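User: Hi! I'm a student and our assignment asks us to look at how structure tokens line up with a sequence. Could you show me two examples?

Assistant: Happy to help. In each example below, the sequence comes first and the structure tokens follow. Example one:
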Amino acid sequence: MLQERLDSDLKNSMRSKNAARTRTLRSIRAALQQKEIEKRGKGEKGLTEAEILAVLQKQAKQREDSIEQFAQGGRPDLESSEREELEIIREYLPAQASDEEIRSVVEMAIEAVGAESIADMGRVMGNAMAALKGKADGRRINQVVKDLLSKTH
């Protein structure tokens, strides 16, 4: 379903001559094709919705990293282009968890694993990452885990 939406949106962006959207959707399509080729090499066929989402998340993460690098390098033109692509990619991703939702999940993870100090961070992170898969960036989760473990435990 997501694959069909991406293909349809690519055709529409080409018809409307939206260069940024077309460029971004072609990039996504190329990444998806690469993932399919990898799967075929293992004797598997087609991509699942979860695999498509994982590719989209990876594409978004690459854009975020590029934005950070271009900002540090004083390249606002390239930073702007990457931001535009990131916004297009985010249209296809599930809604991101709010800070309050992340905090709530991390608090439950701390309780579930019985974390008492920052030494338990790995177990808490594993639990929280599984619960927030696709809904929050690992860096955001990591920061909340550190804050809560250093304050309350």
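Example two works the same way, sequence first and then tokens:
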Amino acid sequence: VENVSLIGSGGWTYFDFTKAKGRLRAFIVNDCSNFQIKNFVIDDSFTTFSSLTLGWGGVEKGKALIGRDGLIENLTALNAHYGYGALQAHSGESIVFKNIKAKGGVAVRLETGLGNMNKSGVGGLFDITVEDVVSINGHGALMFQPHTMNHGHVRARNVRSDGSEFALLIAPPFVSTKKFGEGSQKKPGGYASITVDGVKAVYRDGPIVTRYPHLKYYPEELHGMVKRVDNGDQPGYIGPSIAAVANMQPELDSIKITNVEAIGFKYHPDIIGPDDLFKGSIKHLTKIAP
């Protein structure tokens, strides 16, 4: 598919998913070049999958069938699931994400865990630009997690959060034994470079949905605000904001983060790393073992 525009009419077009259940997306882009998607609001009900997914159509003659030369602009997701959000990009080349907002979940999730793509080793994200992204009461505005894929360059600016866990989260890669089995020869992936300029995060007491692996991110002073709850299909914990930025690979010179403003965070620095994680037992936060 080539040369496609999907533009919301009358300024914005509204998807009403408020009574939907299960697995749902508004858009999927796989093998497509020279496209734009803009001016859409998705009013969700915490369904599985991000509102928009840049996927992967397989491999043909050694080349990944993915989205290329695309613009995704003015996309808002409301009531998004913590594990998903406004959009997730598993693959893409020369893509611009601009003015993306999510209430819940992640606004722009550059997490490339699609199993078949990781098994093939062909695909990923290259020449990606992210501008003006916002998270409200969610997981974060911009998230990176390369899994086992090797990606190109990503540039981002104006990353904002209000009452979310993070504004920016750079998670370390890992090789999933569930996907690849024990003794896999797969290697952790990464990005050629990540450059983020202009991050602003506002602390709120919550409640913000969080998950078990993130409990160690909380400073001890905030442990009394973390609770285990019955949260339906979403993770079963709530708590306050954690930090403006979490960079779990601070040793990499290829990651540059500048102009960070953290408002109201008392117990963490503006940018936290592995050395800032809670080192003690978190059993008192779980009450019942997950």
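Here is something you could point out in your write-up. Helices lie at 115-120, 177-180, 283-286.
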